[in-house]
Design goal:
With 799 residues, the chain is an alpha+beta fold. Among the domains are: 12-192 and 194-234, Immunoglobulin-like (Sandwich); 686-798, Golgi alpha-mannosidase II (Immunoglobulin-like, Sandwich), CATH 2.60.40.1180. 18% of the residues lie in helices and 31% in strands. It has 12 helices and 51 strands. The chain has a 9-stranded antiparallel β-sheet with strand order 5-6-7-8-9-10-17-16-12, with no helix packed on it. Strands 31-30-28-25-21-20-19-33-32 form a 9-stranded parallel β-sheet. A hairpin with a 2-residue loop joins strand 14 (186-191) and strand 15 (194-200). The longest helix is centred in the middle third of the chain and has 24 residues, at 434-457.
Length: 799
C-alpha cells in the first residue's frame, strides 16, 4: 500500500462491485463490473490462493516457485451468499468477500479475525513499461509481529520495516542494507497467539511494508505481473512454515559429507597450495570434508576449463585429495567469455542460447573473464544443454559439488550491477523481459546445474550451492549469505540471516565463516566458528585480498577452539542428519528461532540471538568481543547446560558464564542426543558403538535418529533406519523405549547410553523384561551403560 509519500500515485484504481460469480471445483471466480476477476482456489483447508486480474481474463498460470509434485486437497468447502458478502468456508477458516469492492477478511471457525484487507487489492497503470503496478494493503492489529522474507540483514521481527526484493550483488553489505542476493516473498504474521502466512508469488521487484508507513497497515506490492498470493493459516507458526515449505518444495537428502566442515578461499591455487591446505587440516586433526576451488582454477576464467599452469592434471589431483577424504567443489559462474576459440561459447552461439536485448543483439556484460554473453536459463533447452556440460567435471574428473556464484545476475561496470531491464527471456514459453525474470535467473541456473551434477554423480547424490535464489530454489540447491564482512556486526547478521532463511523454506544455508571481506581477529574467527558449526551449511570462505583465514592463520588457542567445535559438529552428525531428514520429510526447519519454538511466550517475539538447533539443542552465540558471559533467554521448559550438565528451568532471562572456548549451549530435558566418534572426514572410521546422551526428565520426551548408507538413493527404497526413542522418567525409574522403522542395518551393534541428571542411585537394570547384571552392560558409577542395539525397552530402576 502506498499513500502520502513520494511514491503515491493519484491514479490508483480499485475493483468495483461484484456482478457475477461461478464455482468450478476447488476454485471460485468473482467478476466485477470494471472487469476485475478474483479467483479463489482452495488448495487445502488452511491454504487458499487469491489471484486477481484487471484485464477480464487470466494470463497463463505459471510459477517457478510452486512444487508441482505436491498433491493438495481439502476436506470441506462451502460457498454461501449473504446480503453484503460471499462467504467461503473450509474446515479451518472462513473467508468473507465484500460484494461492493472485493475486499477480503479471513476468520477462524470461532469468528476470530485473522487477517483483513485495508484498501485491499488496487493497482495503477505502468505507462513506462506497460501492465500494472499491483498493490495490496492489509489492516494490522496492535501487537502484531512479522517474520520471514528470507535473506534480510535486520531484526528477526520485521515490524516497522520496509523491505525490497530484487536479487542484488551486494558486496560487503551492512546491517539494514536491502535488497540482498535472495528473494523470498513470504512472511509470517503473528497476533494474539495465532500465526498466518502470506506468499506473494510474483517475480518482479517486490516491496513489503510492515506498518512503517502507517502504524496499523501492512502492505506488499510489485512493479508488474499479477496480484497472486497464498494465504496460509496456522494457527501455530510450525503449521505455517511446514505448509509453505510443502508448497514451494523440499530438497532431497544430501550425502552426509556435505554436512561436514568445508574450507574455501578466493582462491586456492596452484595445486601445491591446495595440497598444502588439505595436508595441514590432517596434520592438525581438524576435521574437514571439502575443499573449494574459486575462479582461478579456470583457464582465463572460462567456465568448464582448467588452468594448465596451475592444475596440469586435475583428475589425478582430485583423486589424490579423495584418498585423503577431501571432496573437491568448484565454482561455475553464468558469464561465458566471448571467445570464438572457446567451445562452450561456440556451442551456445550456434544454438542461440544467449540472452538478447529487446532489439536483437546478445546481452553483453563484463564479469571476471572480461566481456561475456549469458545463457538464458529460463529456456528448458538451455538448461538441458547446461546440465550436459558437467560431464567432464563430475564423471571424468571426479568433482563432487558445484558452486554457482555471480548469478543475481551480477554484471560489473554498470550502475545497476545487473542486466538491462529490456533483456528478453524465454521464461519456459512465457516470453518476458528481465524485469520479470531477474529474480529467478539464479534459481534457474542452479536448477540446470543441479540436474547436470545429479545426472553425472549418479548413483551418488548431488551437491550444489548458489548465491542467488527465489522461493522454491531449495528443491535444487543449498545457499550461503553472500559477501559478508569480518566484523562483529556481521556475526550478528549471520546468526539472524540463517535463522530467517530456515523459517523461509530455505533451510540448507550458512554464512562465510570469519567474513568474506576484510580480516577477522582470532577472537572473531573463533566466535564465528562456534556459531557456524550449528548452521546447516558450514564453510569458512574469504577474499584473498585480505590475508589468510584458515584456522592456523591465528594462534594456538584459536586452532584448539576450531578443532573442538568442528569435532563437536562431527560428533553431532547423526543428530544433524536427522534434522535434515525431518526437514525433507515433514518440512520442519532445521533451525528454529525462539518465536517459532514457543510463539505463545511473548518474551520470544523480539529475541534475535538464541535459536533451537534441531528440536532439542538451544544455542546462543557470543556476539561481542572480550565476553566472559552473556545474558540470554532460556525458553520455557527444562534444560541442561551442555558443558556443566547443570539443570535449569526456562521461561526466564539469565546470565550465563562462558569461556573463550565455549558458548552457551543447553539441551532439552528428556532428550536423547546421538553422537558419532570424531572423524577427520565422513567415512574415515568404522565403529561398533553409537553414543546416546540421555538427559533425565521427570516426564516423557521423544527423540529420533535417522541413518542410512550416507549417500546414494537406497534410502528411497526403504533402506534407512529411523529410530524413535522415548525416555520416560519417574521418581525412581527411567524407561527407554526403542522402535525402529526401515530396512537399513547400521554397522554398529551397540549403544553406549550416557545417563545425565539421573536423580536416583541405580539398583537394577532390565532389558526387555529381563534383569541383567551391571557388568553385563558395563554399568558403573560414571553412569553409562552399553547395550545391544536390538533392545525394545530398557528399565533403569533406583532407590
Amino acid at each position: 500500500m502506498i499513500t502520502n509519500t513520494s511514491l503515491e500515485y493519484k491514479g490508483d484504481l480499485y475493483p468495483s462491485k461484484i456482478v457475477s460469480y461461478e464455482h468450478e471445483g476447488d476454485s471460485i471466480f468473482f467478476h466485477t463490473d470494471n472487469k476485475v476477476i478474483l479467483k479463489v482456489t482452495i488448495l487445502r483447508d488452511s491454504l487458499i490462493r487469491f489471484r486477481f486480474t484487471t484485464k477480464g481474463y487470466f494470463s497463463n498460470d505459471f510459477s517457478y516457485a510452486i512444487d508441482k509434485t505436491q498433491l493438495h486437497g481439502y476436506n470441506f468447502l462451502e460457498l454461501t451468499e449473504e446480503e453484503t458478502y460471499f462467504q467461503i468456508r473450509t474446515s479451518k477458516v472462513k473467508c468473507k468477500i465484500q460484494k461492493a469492492d472485493l475486499r477480503l477478511s479471513i476468520y477462524d471457525l470461532n469468528d476470530f479475525l485473522i487477517l483483513e484487507d485495508e484498501l485491499g487489492f488496487h493497482w495503477e497503470e505502468s505507462y513506462e513499461y506497460g501492465g500494472n503496478i499491483v498493490k495490496m494493503s492489509k489492516s494490522s492489529k496492535d501487537g502484531e509481529c512479522f517474520y520471514g522474507l528470507g535473506d534480510k540483514a535486520t531484526q528477526m521481527n520485521l515490524k516497522g520495516k520496509r523491505l525490497e526484493n530484487f536479487a542484488t550483488d551486494q558486496y560487503a553489505f551492512q546491517k539494514e542494507q536491502d535488497p540482498l542476493y535472495k528473494v523470498v516473498p513470504f512472511y509470517i504474521g503473528l497476533n494474539n497467539k495465532q500465526s498466518y502466512g502470506i506468499f506473494f508469488d510474483n517475480t518482479f521487484r517486490t516491496f513489503f511494508d510492515f506498518c512503517q508507513e502507517r502504524r496499523n497497515v501492512s502492505s506488499f506490492w510489485a512493479e508488474g505481473g499479477e496480484m497472486n498470493y497464498y494465504f496460509i493459516y496456522g494457527p501455530q507458526m510450525q503449521d505455517v512454515v511446514t505448509t509453505y515449505t510443502d508448497l514451494t518444495g523440499k530438497p532431497e537428502l544430501p550425502p552426509l559429507w556435505v554436512l561436514g566442515y568445508h574450507q574455501c578461499k578466493w582462491s586456492y591455487y596452484p595445486e601445491s597450495k591446495v595440497k598444502e591446505i588439505t595436508s595441514k587440516f590432517r596434520e592438525l586433526k581438524i576435521p574437514c570434508d571439502a575443499i573449494y576451488l574459486d575462479i582461478d582454477y579456470m583457464e582465463g576464467f572460462r567456465c568448464f576449463t582448467w588452468s594448465k599452469e596451475y592444475f596440469p592434471d586435475p583428475k589425478r589431483m582430485i583423486a589424490e585429495l579423495a584418498e585423503d577424504g577431501f571432496k573437491t567443489v568448484v565454482i561455475i559462474d553464468p558469464g561465458i567469455k566471448i571467445d570464438k576459440e572457446y567451445s562452450v561459447y561456440q556451442e551456445a552461439l550456434e544454438k542461440d542460447y544467449f540472452c538478447k536485448r529487446a532489439d536483437g543483439p546478445y546481452m553483453k556484460g563484463k564479469v571476471w573473464p572480461g566481456e561475456c554473453n549469458f545463457p538464458d536459463y529460463t529456456n528448458p533447452a538451455v538448461r538441458e544443454w547446461w546440465a550436459g556440460l558437467f560431464k567432464e567435471l563430475i564423471s571424468d574428473f571426479g568433482v563432487k559439488g558445484v558452486w554457482n556464484d555471480m548469478n543475481e545476475p551480477a554484471v560489473m561496470e554498470v550502475p545497476n550491477k545487473t542486466f538491462p531491464m529490456d533483456v528478453r527471456h524465454s521464461y519456459d514459453g512465457n516470453p518476458c523481459s528481465h524485469r520479470k525474470a531477474h529474480n529467478i535467473y539464479g534459481t534457474q541456473m542452479a536448477r540446470a546445474t543441479y540436474h547436470g551434477v545429479k545426472r553425472f554423480a549418479y548413483p551418488k547424490r548431488p551437491f550444489v550451492i548458489t548465491r542467488s535464489a527465489y522461493s522454491g530454489a531449495q528443491r535444487y540447491t543449498s545457499s550461503w549469505t553472500g559477501d559478508n564482512v569480518a566484523t562483529w556486526e556481521h556475526l550478528w547478521i549471520a546468526n539472524i540471516q540463517v535463522q530467517r532463511m530456515s523459517i523461509s523454506g530455505m533451510g540448507f544455508t550458512g554464512s562465510d565463516i570469519g567474513g568474506f571481506a576484510e580480516q577477522p581477529t582470532g577472537e572473531l574467527y573463533a566466535r564465528w566458528i562456534q556459531l557456524g558449526v550449528f548452521h546447516p551449511f558450514c564453510r569458512t570462505h574469504s577474499s584473498g585480498d585480505h590475508g589468510n583465514q584458515e584456522p592456523w592463520a591465528f594462534d594456538e588457542e584459536v586452532i584448539n577452539i576450531t578443532r573442538k567445535f568442528v569435532s563437536l559438529r562431527y560428533q553431532l552428525l547423526p543428530y544433524l542428519y536427522t534434522m535434515f531428514w525431518q526437514y525433507i520429510e515433514e518440512g520442519i526447519p532445521m533451525l528454529k528461532p525462539l518465536v517459532y519454538y514457543d510463539q505463545e511466550d511473548t518474551q520470544t517475539h523480539y529475541r534475535n540471538d538464541e535459536f533451537i538447533f534441531g528440536n532439542q539443542i538451544l544455542v546462543c552465540p557470543i556476539l561481542e568481543p572480550n565476553a566472559v558471559g552473556r545474558r540470554m533467554y532460556i525458553p520455557r521448559g527444562e534444560w541442561y547446560n551442555y558443558w556443566t550438565n547443570e539443570f535449569s528451568n526456562g521461561g526466564r532471562e539469565v546470565w550465563v558464564d562462558t569461556k573463550f572456548d565455549e558458548i552457551p549451549i543447553f539441551v532439552k530435558a528428556g532428550a536423547i542426543i546421538p553422537k558419532y566418534p570424531v572423524q577427520q572426514y565422513v567415512g574415515e572410521l568404522e565403529f561398533d558403538e553409537l553414543t546416546l546422551d540421555l538427559y533425565f526428565k521427570n516426564g516423557k520426551e521423544k527423540s529420533f535418529v535417522y541413518e542410512d548408507s550416507q549417500d546414494g538413493y537406497d534410502y528411497k527404497k526403504g533402506r534407512y533406519s529411523f529410530l524413535s526413542l522415548t525416555a520416560i522418567g519417574k521418581e525412581k525409574e527411567l524407561i527407554v523405549q526403542l522402535h525402529k522403522e526401515g530396512k537399513f542395518e547400521t554397522n554398529y551393534s551397540k549403544y553406549k547410553i550416557n545417563l545425565i541428571g539421573l536423580p536416583f542411585k541405580v539398583t537394577e537394570i532390565e532389558i526387555d523384561n529381563e534383569k541383567v547384571a551391571f557388568d553385563e552392560v558395563s554399568f558403573s558409577e560414571s553412569h553409562f551403560l552399553i547395550v545391544n542395539k536390538e533392545f525394545s525397552e530398557l528399565h533403569i530402576i533406583g532407590e
